Amino acid sequence: MKEVGYEQIATVLETWDAARFGSKDFDNEFGMVALERLFELQPRAKKVFGYDQREEVGKSHANVHASAFAGLFDSIFQMLGPDLEFIQAILRQVGHRHKSMGVSPSFFPYMGQAVIHAVEKYLGKPLTAEQRAVWEEVYDSISNEIVKNILQ
Hints:
- By secondary structure, the chain is mainly α.
- It is built from six helices and no strands.
- The protein has helices at about 5-20, 25-40, 55-80, 85-100, 110-125, 130-150.
């Protein structure tokens, strides 16, 4: 995994915390906002959640996943830093779990866009160009590690 610098971590945590504290029900809402954007950007991702079976099945699976989404990002962001072995072990598990769910590595760039979209929604304003670049770099580092484990 590509090392993430202290300043990058600080930028992501600062904007993440600002977004998080802008909503009373962030944990439940953030994930759904990100997933809805993902489905707009990459409709094939809906199949992973069972939308190809029935709309109700898809919504149920998406709601369960969405509620865990913010917590997963919280945990990952808090682990960013010099101890790469620890976070790599966690991301390896995340990759294996995504593989078992049938998540395509091609979905990850769209998910990155969806996460940034959701962060901006809860910030109430767009990220600056510098913040966006940092978010993209940190997300790419995390997602590349997950994808590496999906492909194994």
